Amino acid sequence: MPEDGFGRDINYLRLSLIDNCNLRCVYCMPMEGLTFAPAPELLTPEEFATVARAAATVGFHKIRLTGGEPLLRADLVEIVEKISRIDGITDLSMTTNGVRLPQLAHRLKAAGLHRVNIHLDTLDRDHLKRVMRLGSFDAIWSGIEAAQAAGLHPIKINVVVVRDYNEDDVVDMARLTMDRDWHVRFIELMPLGGGECARLSLEQYVSNTQTRERIEEVLGCLTPILSHDPSDEARNYRLEDAPGVVGFISPVSEPYCGTCNRMRLTADGQFHLCLLNDDELDVKRALRNGGGEEAVARILLKAIAFKPTGHRLSQGHAPQHRSMYQTGG
Ligand code: SAM
Ligand code: SF4
């Protein structure tokens, strides 16, 4: 198991497959002025598989595919097929806005994808148009239903809570867990990239303490569920007699850097050492200069060794170089 300089077992790799997206959530992507990595700069399925194999050889066992929007990759099924065949990878998941799942969920399941986290900020159609902008409730909901039908369990729903956009809708989102075995997870806004989305993320921030109080006021007590996994970023709870789980991911108010087990790879082939710092190590050059698994494993071990202890948001240091859609969240 690869351990960093602070005794953390780093065993979870998040692969960002693409930096483009079909939505424009207010806290993630501006509507205009975007530039995306040109196609030849994005890693190929075989390059992602080489990185994943290298990761498995040094002890990684969890991989998540993310973006941008991973379902926009025309070769996504091939990427999933290649990674799911790698010995040692026991958990292969994807974070997505779900819009293209009706066309893809069954093929992804057949290719070896285990489960999905689907991003849905509200059940209110008008609020959704404001917060996820190019998104529509019906499209995302159909994606969730397709994931369920394909057996991509457990279904986890990501809700980013934004003051004046969807902060009161958290009650209806949590209520979904009362008759479904879904995990509905509330995420605090993080300011990435230094632009207008970062500004909004600072200005419209809602702490998860407030979100939890709002839910309990209407739906009653949330009972903690003890986690067996110390690196689980969510604090999990259950409403009375509910089959589902309500989770809180609080990187700002309750940083979990001390138990972070993640490494990230950007779509253009950089190991990104911490979501909330700018440090990166290039792996694409090695891949394109003929370096195989061994060369990648050496760079990965170096990336682990250089992983920062944690973020410094409370001291006013936010990452400037990449926005959320470029790091994969
Ligand atoms: N497009 C996919 C999606 O939306 O799930 C995958 C990529 S997106 C960058 C990954 C996750 O990042 C989203 O599910 C959303 O919850 C989260 N996210 C995006 N911007 C954020 C921000 N500024 N603060 C907190 N979470 C954010
Ligand atoms: Fe796209 Fe996901 Fe960012 Fe929303 S959060 S704009 S769906 S990448």
Q: SS-based structural class?
A: alpha/beta
Determine the N-to-C terminus distance. Answer: 24 Å
- CATH topology, which one? TIM Barrel
The CATH top-level class label:
Alpha Beta
Low-pLDDT windows of residues? none
- Assembly context of the chains: single chain
Secondary-structure element series: EHEHEHEHHEHEHHEEEEEEHHH
Rg calculated over all Cα atoms: 19 Å
Which key terms come to mind for this protein?
329 residues; single chain; binds iron/sulfur cluster; globular; 31% helix; TIM Barrel; binds S-adenosylmethionine; 17% strand; 11 helices; alpha/beta; twelve-stranded mixed β-sheet
Lay out the secondary structure.
Elements: E1 12-16, H1 45-57, E2 62-66, H2 76-84, E3 91-96, H3 101-111, E4 115-119, H4 125-131, H5 137-150, E5 156-160, H6 170-175, E6 183-187, H7 196-203, H8 208-219, E7 222-224, E8 234-239, E9 245-249, E10 262-265, E11 270-272, E12 280-282, H9 284-288, H10 293-305, H11 324-327
Parallel strand pairs: 1-2, 1-10, 2-3, 3-4, 4-5, 5-6, 6-9
Antiparallel strand pairs: 7-8, 8-9, 10-11, 11-12
S-adenosylmethionine (SAM) binds next to strand 3, strand 5 and helix 11.
